[in-house]
Design brief:
It is built from 19 helices and six strands. The chain is of the alpha/beta class. The protein has a six-stranded mixed beta sheet, with helices on both faces.
C-alpha cells in the first residue's frame, strides 16, 4: 500500500497538483492514525493532506478512483453442476461450429475464467495502453482492448450458439440458464478490462517523467500537457503565427519577380560576350493552396486544435485553405473560420464533435471526402493529414487515400507517434506511409511550427 500511495502522489504531481515533501509526510502520518480499511476515511485523510486548491479536487477524485478503486470485481459463474452428459455433448457440438479463436473465448466464458495478467499485458501492448497516461482515455482504451479481444464478435457468437443449441433440442430452461451465465460472465470480463486499463493508466501517469527545469512549454509533448498548460499554448499561437507570417511574407517579397537565376543569365548573355544585358529569374513562388484533414478524436485533439489555429492565423500567406475534421465521419469546417476568429471557430468545431462517443474511422471519412469534396484537390494543392494513423481496426481505404494523393501536388502527414509505433495495435500508418510524399513526426508545438513553416516554402 505504501508503494501505491507514493505512485498516487507522483501521479497527482504529474497532473499539476503542487505537493511538497512535508505534505506527503502529513498524508502518511494521517494514514498511520486512521488506517486504510475504511475507504471513505482513507480518502478524506489523503485529500485533506494533499489538496490545497478547490479546482484540484476533481483531479484528486479522478486519480483516487484509479489507484484505490478496488481490485476485485464480481466473481464469474461456472457451468451448472447438474449439466447432463447429453447437454454437455450438445454444447461441445455447438462450439465446434466456430473458429478456434472464438471457440477459445466462448469456452473461457463457459468455464468462468477471467483473463490472465499475461493476456492483459499483451492486450495493453497491442492497443497502445502502455503509452497512455491520461485518465480521460480509460473508456476509450477499454473499448480498444475489447475490440482487440474481439468481444463484439463473441457477443454475436453467443447468440448464434444459443440458437444452435435450441435447434439441437436443449430445453428452454437450460438455455435461459446458460444465457444468464454467459452474459453475466461477459459483463465481468468487460469490467476486468476496464479496471485493468484504469490501473495501467494510473501506473503510467505516476511513471511519467517530469519536465526538466526550464524546459520550454512549446517543447513539451502534446500528450503530457495539462489543461492549464494547453491554455498557455493557445495564447502562444498568436506569437508563433506572427513569426511564421513574417518569414513567409519575406519569402514572398523576394519571389515577386522570381529569384535571380545566375546560370540562365550567363547562358542568355553569351551573345553579348558575357555582359549581363538580359537578366533571367527562376519561376515565381506561388502561395500554397492547402487541404487539411484533421483527426479530432480524444488522442489527437490538442495537436489538431493548434494546427488549425496556426493555419488560419496566417491565412494571408496561403492562397486558399479547405479544412476538414473527422472522427467516425468527415465534416467540412472552413465555414466556421469564415464567420468567427480562429480560437472561437475551433472551440465550436470541438463542441460539435465531442470525443468519446464513437471510434475513429479514417476509411469512412475518406469515402465522405471522395463523395463530396474531391473537387478541392488539384495539381497546386498540398494535402495535409493530421493524425496518428490509428483506425480502430476499420478498413483504412488505401485505395481512396492513393486516389487523393495522386490528385494533389504533394501529400504530407503530420503524426505525433514515432515510426517504431507504426503498425502496432490498430495503427495503419505503415500502410499510409508509402503513399505520402513526406511524413513528419510532430509531437510538440515547436515541431508543429517548423512543419507549417516548411509547408509555406
Amino acid at each position: 500500500m505504501e508503494t501505491q500511495i507514493i505512485r498516487f502522489v507522483k501521479a497527482l504531481r504529474a497532473r499539476g497538483v503542487r505537493i511538497s515533501l512535508a505534505e506527503s509526510a502529513d498524508a502518511f502520518r494521517a494514514i498511520d492514525q486512521l488506517g486504510v480499511k475504511v475507504r471513505s476515511t482513507f480518502r478524506l485523510a489523503m485529500r485533506a493532506s494533499l489538496v490545497k486548491e478547490q479546482n484540484q479536487l476533481g483531479i484528486f477524485d479522478e486519480l483516487f478512483d484509479l489507484f484505490f478503486g478496488g481490485q476485485a470485481g464480481l466473481p464469474m459463474s461456472n457451468l451448472p453442476e447438474d449439466l447432463t452428459d447429453e447437454e454437455a455433448a450438445l454444447l461441445a457440438d455447438a462450439l465446434r461450429q466456430f473458429n478456434l479463436r472464438l471457440r477459445q473465448l466462448l469456452e473461457k466464458l463457459l468455464r468462468g475464467e477471467e483473463l490472465t495478467e499475461e493476456e492483459l499485458d499483451r492486450l495493453a501492448a497491442l492497443t497502445g495502453l502502455d503509452q497512455t497516461d491520461d485518465p480521460r482515455y480509460q473508456n476509450w482504451m477499454s473499448r480498444r482492448m475489447e475490440q482487440a479481444l474481439r468481444l463484439p464478435e463473441v457477443q454475436e457468437a453467443l447468440q448464434e450458439m444459443l440458437a444452435l443449441l435450441q435447434e439441437m433440442g436443449m430445453t428452454p430452461e437450460r438455455l435461459e440458464q446458460l444465457r444468464s451465465i454467459l452474459q453475466a460472465n461477459l459483463t465481468v470480463l468487460r469490467e476486468q478490462i476496464r479496471r485493468f486499463s484504469g490501473r495501467r493508466i494510473a501506473e503510467n501517469l505516476s511513471d511519467r517523467q517530469q519536465p526538466e527545469e526550464g524546459q520550454a512549454l512549446d517543447d513539451r509533448p502534446f500528450s503530457s500537457l495539462t489543461e492549464t498548460e494547453m491554455e498557455k499554448l493557445r495564447r502562444q499561437v498568436t506569437r508563433l503565427a506572427a513569426a511564421l507570417r513574417t518569414r513567409a511574407a519575406l519569402r514572398q517579397r523576394r519571389a515577386k519577380i522570381g529569384q535571380l537565376d545566375a546560370k540562365a543569365t550567363f547562358r542568355a548573355n553569351i551573345k553579348y560576350a558575357g555582359v549581363p544585358f538580359e537578366i533571367r529569374h527562376r519561376r515565381k513562388r506561388l502561395k500554397p493552396k492547402l487541404v487539411v484533414i484533421c483527426d479530432v478524436s480524444t488522442s489527437m485533439r490538442h495537436m489538431s486544435e493548434l494546427m488549425l489555429a496556426l493555419v488560419y492565423t496566417i491565412q494571408d500567406q496561403i492562397s486558399r485553405t479547405h479544412a476538414y475534421a473527422f472522427i467516425d465521419h468527415l465534416e467540412y469546417i472552413s465555414p466556421d473560420f469564415e464567420s468567427a476568429p480562429p480560437s472561437r471557430a475551433i472551440q465550436g468545431v470541438l463542441q460539435r464533435m465531442p470525443p468519446g462517443y464513437y471510434s475513429t474511422d479514417l476509411g469512412a471519412s475518406l469515402q465522405n471526402f471522395a463523395d463530396r469534396h474531391l473537387n478541392t484537390l488539384d495539381r497546386r494543392t498540398t494535402l495535409i493529414f493530421v493524425g496518428d494513423g490509428r483506425n480502430n481496426y476499420n478498413n483504412p481505404r488505401l485505395d481512396l487515400f492513393s486516389r487523393l494523393a495522386r490528385r494533389s501536388r504533394r501529400t504530407i502527414w503530420l503524426n505525433p507517434e514515432p515510426a517504431y509505433h507504426w503498425g502496432s495495435g490498430d495503427s495503419d500508418m505503415h500502410e499510409y506511409f508509402p503513399l505520402c510524399d513526406r511524413v513528419l513526426k510532430v509531437n510538440t508545438l515547436a515541431e508543429l511550427s517548423q512543419a507549417i513553416d516548411s509547408l509555406l516554402v
